């Protein structure tokens, strides 16, 4: 599961699917991804049972398989943000201004 959460596009994907089911075509547009790239991410997340899909005619819809996964996602996201804030406090102010 941590591998799923290690890629920014997969994190975006989870956020898009947080409250609703979305078609693969819509996901391509929302995430600005090619169908082949999106397909790779979706397959990986389906294999790990993060997402489930259903087909309606030629359209495939995706949703989060278990909403408790969103709780884990939110906790990991909070931890990452805390680490980023902590790391930012370790950079001397002068060095941070020089980089800008």
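Sequence proposed for the structure above (100 residues):
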């Amino acid at each position: 599961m941590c591998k799923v959460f290690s890629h920014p596009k997969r994190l975006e994907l989870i956020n898009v699917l947080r409250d609703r089911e979305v078609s693969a075509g819509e996901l391509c547009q929302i995430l600005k991804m090619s169908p082949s790239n999106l397909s790779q991410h979706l397959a990986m997340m389906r294999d790990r049972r993060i997402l489930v899909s259903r087909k309606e005619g030629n359209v495939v819809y995706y949703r989060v398989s278990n909403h408790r996964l969103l709780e884990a996602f939110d906790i990991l996201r909070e931890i990452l943000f805390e680490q980023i804030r902590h790391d930012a406090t370790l950079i001397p102010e002068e060095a941070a201004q020089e980089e800008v």
